[in-house]
Design brief:
The complex is a heterodimer. By secondary structure, chain A is an alpha+beta fold. In chain A, 61% of the residues lie in helices and 12% in strands. In chain A, the strands form 3 sheets. A 4-stranded antiparallel β-sheet of chain A has the order 1-6-5-4. Chain A has a two-stranded antiparallel sheet with strand order 2-3. Chain B is built from 16 helices and no strands. The chains are: A alpha+beta, B mainly alpha.
Chain lengths: 368, 373
């Protein structure tokens, strides 16, 4: 009996290690990509281009301790330096032994011999310059490896950041407000067409928004709305409304009926009940959907591309970043900083309000 | 209850007051409405033409947009309250649901019909061509490639997301650092697909074999003695898988959160009883847990499949649809906005719609089964 107990104890411990081990592994795989980006955004341009971001951690690297001209040797034959011998080709690659590496740098005639030692080192030369350059719209100068100075245009993420804010805040609040009115109407009012209209809402839950882009773009061109903030607010409102109405209806219709009835008895109008009673009571549901919609709008690329693509001045962060991937895809010091600028606000909102967000997801998770 | 009492102190509406003040009320309401419209119109003109600093425009735009909608509801309500009681009760519901429904119909319901109509016209939307576009969509080589890729996206991407989400949910449920683990896996949900594209482009970055690799994947490959690869462009058709990884990374967290909640809902007595009877953990999972969380599995799978079906940003940012990575949504964009082939573009959008119709029917059926509407 005792042996059996010990046995089961051991198997519990074993499965505990297995569970946590696998989980840690998955967590690492999930976190490392973002971590690498974050670290890189603070590294200097030269560091990023010549070494992986993981070199910020202690690692062993060959470091030059001594160098001298090869002197009078026949580079066509086998040579010996520091007690290591090899051909010219081998020394070009580096010959290791006795705890050092000997390398021939340069060509046969004007080259030099480097004695390198393997030492523990970290590359922690961090800078905020990438962020400064990405955010500002002004030109700045960079010193290139060969000593010349090159002038670059800033990427003006500042501008795009304000555009993203201007798009995202109303495109979050407007659908929440409109949907709350509609949800109240469906939940607490009786009128002809109520059921048909709500069925329409349910049917539209999963309609892909691609279906709407073409006709709406035509309307916008005809109304000269293209590239205005109003246009993109309305578009996001339209695409977010089915889910918003559905979620808020579920919440508002489940509020206790007697609260409303006694308010009616006291002569309050629907409008007053809605603004003074229902809205405050629905804050959790409103917040859940608002976070959902905010993340969706802020991270959206397609809708912005189509409805404000023609106006560079109104570009939002995702468009700006996508443009940068296309135009300067190798400038990792700028791309990493730019990507992080575009992610900072949603990440902060997400981390602070995760609880609400999860509640929203659980309440309903079908968006067109 | 307290709050309801307080409300009673206020006059409910204008028309319940005396005759003289009713006229004043009506006058005020109409004036307020006119002033609101004028202010909003001026705001619109200002925002359209202004060259003020960006942050000033941002603040004014936010105030104008958010305040404008609230003001319109308020003004409309005070106008309706001037109506005779009976008419008012008939009109009021439409103030509440009307704006939402108008926007829904303009932005989603009508476009469905209009896009269908465009899909029957030629590339310039002039001549009626019947089903020719549909025939093209299902026979052109580039479309077949897009369908193939999208199918791979759904089969590999959606399945992996669901399975990894389920795995993490189960593991986290038994772990001591459950919340931390869940937060870390969930975090990519807050990252845009464009941002994720940059993150993963950096991981897939390839350098000349002689230089140090700065992309993590190639650094690992080289350290293990392999040759650096251009993961997203050269190794067709496998490059698609490297794009799919990004979406698995993005949406496994979503699946995990829903599964995690469902697993927590499984009564622990049932699980304990099964274990007492000698069921292995695997049996407990497949025979007891899985049947109970089946509805969640269906919801999550549908959502993830629909999401993957419409995948656009990732492909656009990573490869722009080159190197044989086009999917339906990128072809839609290319046909409509680059090639200006409105007929074909609309048809591709219709294909996306047709693909989700089963889900739509399922949703409607679920809704009908719910009583008490």
């Amino acid at each position: 009996m005792a042996a059996k107990m010990a046995d089961s104890k051991r198997s519990v411990m074993l499965s505990d290690i297995l569970v946590n081990g696998v989980l840690v592994l998955i967590c690492l795989v999930w976190t490392i990509p973002t971590f690498g980006l974050l670290v890189s955004s603070f590294r200097t341009r030269d560091d990023i281009q010549t070494s992986g971001w993981w070199t910020i951690f202690p690692h062993r690297e060959w470091r030059v301790t001594e160098e001298y001209p090869p002197g009078d040797v026949d580079s066509r034959a086998v040579m010996t330096f520091e007690g290591l011998s090899g051909t010219f080709e081998e020394f070009r690659e580096g010959v290791e032994g006795n705890g050092v590496r000997v390398q021939w740098i340069g060509n046969r005639r004007t080259g030099r011999i480097e004695i390198q030692e393997r030492v523990w080192t970290t590359r922690t030369d961090f800078t905020l310059a990438n962020y400064a350059n990405v955010l500002s719209g002004k030109t700045y100068e960079i010193r290139q490896p060969n000593g010349s100075i090159k002038t670059e245009q800033g990427d003006n993420f500042n501008n795009a950041f304000f555009n993203s804010l201007t798009v995202a805040i109303p495109a979050t609040v407007i659908p929440v407000l409109i949907a709350a009115f509609a949800a109240y109407g469906f939940a607490w009012m009786r009128f002809p067409g109520r059921k048909a209209l709500f069925i329409l809402v349910v049917a539209l839950l999963v309609v892909p928004l691609q279906i709407a882009l073409v006709p709406i773009l035509r309307d916008y061109v005809a109304l000269q709305l293209n590239g205005t903030f109003l246009a993109i607010w309305l578009a996001h409102t339209g695409f977010g409304l089915p889910l918003a109405i559905y979620l808020l209806y579920n919440y508002i219709s489940s509020l206790p009926r007697d609260i409303l009835e006694s308010a009616f008895m006291d002569g309050a109008s629907h409008f007053v009940i809605f603004t003074r009673l229902i809205l405050p009571l629905s804050v959790p549901a409103l917040a859940s959907f608002a976070i959902f919609q905010y993340l969706w709008v802020w991270n959206d690329y397609l809708v912005a591309l189509i409805f404000i693509g023609s106006k560079p001045d109104v570009q939002v962060l995702t468009m700006r970043l996508a443009d940068m991937v296309g135009s300067r895809g190798a400038d990792w010091h700028l791309l990493t900083a730019g990507a992080f600028v575009s992610m900072a606000l949603p990440l902060a909102v997400f981390l602070l309000l995760q609880r609400f967000f999860v509640r929203g997801l659980l309440a309903g998770s079908v968006k067109g | 209850m307290q709050q309801a009492k307080k409300l009673a102190g206020q006059p409910a509406s204008g028309s319940s007051n005396g005759g003289g003040s009713a006229i004043v009320q009506t006058f005020l309401s109409i004036t307020a409405a006119i002033v609101t419209f004028l202010v909003l119109w001026q705001g619109f003109l200002f925002l359209r033409d202004s060259t003020a600093p960006k942050w000033v425009i941002a603040i004014i735009a936010i105030l104008w947009g958010v305040g404008g909608v609230a003001a319109l509801y308020f003004v409309a309500n005070s106008l309706i309250e001037q109506l005779p009681l009976k008419l008012r009760d008939a009109v009021l519901p439409y103030l509440f649901v009307g704006p939402a429904m108008a926007i829904l119909i303009w932005y989603l319901a009508l476009p469905t019909v209009r896009t269908f109509w465009f899909s029957l016209l030629d590339r310039n939307s002039v001549n009626f061509v019947g089903l020719q576009n549909y025939i093209d969509v299902f026979s052109e080589r580039f479309m077949l490639e897009a369908f193939r890729n999208n199918l791979v996206w759904i089969v590999v991407g959606a399945t992996s997301s669901v399975l990894i989400g389920l795995l993490v949910a189960i593991l986290a449920d038994r772990s001591r650092f459950e919340n931390l683990a869940k937060s870390l896996i969930f975090l990519p949900m807050a990252i845009s697909m464009v941002g994720a594209g940059v993150i993963w482009n950096f991981i897939y970055e390839v350098r000349d074999a002689a230089d140090p690799q700065i992309g993590l994947l190639n650094a690992i490959v080289v350290a293990l003695g392999g040759q650096p690869q251009a993961w997203t462009s050269l190794i067709q058709p496998w490059n698609n898988l490297f794009l799919i990884v990004i979406v698995i990374w993005l949406q496994s967290g979503f699946a995990m959160v829903l599964f995690s909640a469902a697993i927590k809902g499984v009564p622990s007595e049932v699980l304990e009883a099964a274990r007492m009877d000698g069921a292995t953990e695997v049996q407990v999972f497949f025979r007891i847990m899985l049947p109970i969380i089946r509805p969640t599995v269906i919801t999550v799978s549908t959502t993830v499949v629909i999401f993957t079906l419409k995948i656009f940003d990732v492909v656009m940012v990573m490869t722009g649809g080159q190197f044989g990575t086009d999917v339906i949504a990128t072809q839609f964009y290319r046909q409509y906005f680059s090639n200006r082939n409105f007929g074909l573009g609309s048809t591709i959008a219709m294909v996306l719609l047709i693909a989700v119709i089963p889900v739509m029917i399922y949703n409607l059926r679920q809704f009908r089964e719910r009583e008490a509407f």
